[in-house]
Amino acid sequence: MTNAEDFDFESGELSLDFGNTSEMHARQTPDELLHDFDDLVTWGQAAGLVSPARAKELRKIANTHGDEADAAYARAIGLREAIYRIFAQLSLEQEIKQEDLALLNLSLGKALPHLQLISSPTGFNWGWADNPQALDQIIWPVARSAAELLTSENLARVRQCADDRGCGYLFMDMSRNRSRRWCSMESCGNRAKATRHYKKIRNAE
Asked: What is the pLDDT of residue 187?
């Protein structure tokens, strides 16, 4: 079981946050954070996509409809992997796989019918139709986030951590000169700096 504090929401985009729910994602054997539907709900609540009350409802439905919950979880993981591959490949200026784009389009096609305009005292906003029974509702905003990023001028700012151990963390590089290479200087960045320093000393011997 994964706790809410285990998740990271520092990438700058919801879809990238979801892609990062598998740690060391560039390795052949990443460290999974979403082990089941319950973990997916935990992530959705931590991301602000579902309220505590709705999270409780979803878990209650999952307990009585296990097969449907397992299927919803499998679809979520499939979408996550497609999103991760798409943005990782684009960050490396590689061609994406059409089957990944097709999977994203499939998820998007199922999500968008639930999108609606909501009025407020300050105007109108996009929101999601209230559907307590929909086990896929957590990934609706994720699919939309990925689509919006792919069609945004900020797409060129998507980066993948350059750590050679396979960190693979996806993030938005909002630096002025677009030179950010690491998920953070405190972790992978400092390690790379220390490695370069060690090699420099060894070469000087």
From this structure: 67
Per domain, the residue ranges of the chain are 4-204
Q: Which helix (H) or strand (E) holds 157?
A: none
Specify whether the backbone of 166 is left (phi greater than 0), alpha (psi in -120 to 50) or beta.
Answer: left
Query: What CATH class does 4-204 carry?
Result: mainly alpha
CA angle 170–172–173, rounded 5-degree value: 115
Place of tokens 């560039």: 26
How confident is the model over 150-176, as pLDDT tens digits?
999 999 999 999 988 899 999 999 998
Query: Which of 64, 73, 61 is closest to 34 using CA atoms?
Result: 73
Contact 26, 160 (CB under 8 A): yes
DSSP letter at 100 equals H
How confident is the model over 66-77, as pLDDT tens digits?
A: 999 999 999 999
Q: Provide the 8-state DSSP code for 167.
A: -
